[in-house]
């Protein structure tokens, strides 16, 4: 990159790739030469990719020609070309200034659109690349990467992490939360397009010299026992996945799990959202056979690493609770007035002091960074999540604050509320983020056409239908 394409320290590189080894290689290459990688999940649309490229001014795009998601072929290069054309249209330029290097999968070679003035094959570049690349010396506060998150706010925000603090926090939390030992084989099923894949598939494990499984595919293809066959094949000892995947596999019963030994497993982890107790118990009893501790981890793209988490075999577990803060993390629960609540309480989850992995800013918009995370309760980092602390001091994440009913209102209406309106729908907006789905549904309920970023939707056509069939409600 730096030798042939003049990429230098501080440049932004967009990476739009499936879960193949070259993705990790590209990340580490950026880190070595001091360039910032901005990874875009390979399931995102051309609009979503374009928006992220333009926001941080990427000079290079690394992508692939195509990949399979289950049995579906995704023509990634075609989507990337569409995104770059949108970038040109937005910038009103004739030359995009972007280069694309592609690596092709082996199962099938689809016809790949090609522009010789701009496109370069990965393997051709590598054939003439030097085996020596001196690292760019960086300060601990130099920028390492940008990762975009949109969630409940609409427009994607470029979360920026730095070299020293982020690496230290990812490495330390990985070591202790998973009780990493040199003989372990670790598997995090997350896509590297999300923060979990950055912290606990790439940087945290590699900083500890860990052996990891890198998985491309879906948990139900070619059959619903895929995860457990991989666990057995590679003798996985530490396994980290999402409650969504656990609930999906629960639907297929115990038999696909019990067909496989899973004797190598020692620690199970969950990430991405609060896990409901039913799924936790199935994970513990069926997958882990009641011998593997579960680390139910709460953290965010913005935090860089685990904030609330059990330590395996050291923290008594409660199904559905993220338990206690990680080392150096000081949580508090506030009421609407910003007063700290002691003992058993429910309210806003905040953190009282910084930690090494905290984001340093939102790329190109420090004012929004201050407003979003620090303005509501000055002196605290505001997570945006609700939280309950029980009589034993355990923390339970209750969900995004903007998705919650006020506690006093909930007490008044009781456990079952009668809706004022019911709207029937053929389907709901589908995306990997529940926060985005809820934000869109709130907008539709208010008849607010300003939906924010919807480029990650798998079925954007359903939006028009939902507006057209919307109930007439009192405004």
UniProtKB/TrEMBL annotation:
Its EC number is 6.2.1.1. The keyword Ligase applies. One of its GO terms (cellular component) is cytoplasm. The chain crosses the membrane at residues 20-44. It is an enzyme of class 6 (ligase). One of its GO terms (molecular function) is ATP binding. It comes from the Eukaryota. Signal peptide: none annotated. Residues 401-435 form the AMP-binding enzyme C-terminal domain. Keywords: ATP-binding, Ligase, Lipid metabolism, Membrane, Nucleotide-binding, Transmembrane, Transmembrane helix. Residues 7-361 form the AMP-dependent synthetase/ligase domain. One of its GO terms (biological process) is lipid metabolic process. Gene3D superfamilies: N-terminal domain of ligase-like. Belongs to the ATP-dependent AMP-binding enzyme family. This is acetate--CoA ligase.
């Amino acid at each position: 990159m730096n030798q042939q394409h003049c990429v230098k320290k501080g440049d932004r590189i967009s990476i739009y790739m499936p879960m193949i080894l070259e993705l990790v290689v590209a990340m580490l290459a950026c880190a070595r030469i001091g360039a910032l990688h901005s990874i875009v999940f390979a399931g995102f649309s051309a609009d979503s990719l374009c928006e992220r490229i333009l926001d941080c001014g990427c000079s290079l795009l690394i992508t692939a020609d195509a990949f399979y998601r289950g049995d579906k072929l995704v023509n990634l290069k075609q989507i990337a070309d569409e995104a770059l054309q949108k970038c040109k249209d937005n910038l009103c330029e004739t030359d995009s200034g972007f280069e694309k290097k592609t690596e092709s999968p082996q199962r099938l070679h689809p016809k790949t659109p090609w522009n010789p003035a701009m496109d370069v094959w990965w393997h051709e570049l590598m054939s003439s690349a030097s085996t020596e690349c001196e690292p760019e010396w960086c300060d601990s506060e130099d920028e390492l990467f940008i990762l975009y998150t949109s969630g409940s706010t609409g427009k994607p925000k470029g979360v920026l992490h730095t070299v020293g603090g982020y690496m230290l926090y990812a490495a330390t939390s990985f070591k202790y939360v998973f009780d990493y030992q040199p003989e372990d084989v670790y598997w995090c099923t997350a896509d590297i397009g999300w923060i979990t894949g950055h912290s606990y598939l790439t940087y945290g494990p590699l900083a500890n010299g860990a052996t990891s499984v890198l998985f491309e595919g879906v948990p139900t293809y070619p059959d619903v026992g895929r995860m457990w066959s991989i666990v057995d094949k590679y003798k996985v000892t530490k396994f980290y996945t999402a409650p969504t995947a656990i609930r999906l596999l629960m639907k297929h019963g115990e038999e696909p799990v019990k067909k496989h030994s899973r004797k190598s497993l020692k620690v199970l982890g969950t990430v991405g959202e609060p896990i409901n107790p039913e799924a936790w118990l199935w994970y513990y009893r069926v997958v882990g056979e009641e011998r593997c501790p579960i680390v139910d981890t709460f953290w965010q793209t913005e935090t860089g690493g685990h904030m609330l988490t059990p330590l395996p075999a050291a923290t008594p577990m409660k199904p559905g609770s993220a338990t206690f803060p990680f080392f150096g993390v000081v949580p508090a629960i506030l009421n609407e007035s910003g007063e700290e609540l002691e003992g058993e309480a429910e309210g806003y989850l905040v953190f009282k002091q910084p930690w090494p992995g905290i984001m340093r800013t939102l790329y190109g918009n420090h004012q929004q960074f201050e407003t979003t995370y620090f303005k509501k309760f000055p002196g605290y980092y505001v997570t945006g999540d609700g939280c309950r602390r029980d009589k034993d001091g355990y923390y339970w994440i209750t969900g995004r604050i903007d998705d919650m009913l006020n506690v006093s209102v909930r007490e008044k209406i009781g456990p079952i509320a009668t809706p004022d309106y019911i709207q029937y729908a053929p389907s709901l907006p589908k995306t990997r983020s529940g926060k985005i789905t809820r934000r869109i549904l709130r907008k539709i309920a208010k008849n607010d056409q300003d939906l924010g970023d919807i480029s990650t939707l798998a079925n954007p056509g359903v939006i028009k239908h939902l507006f057209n069939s919307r109930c007439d409600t009192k405004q």
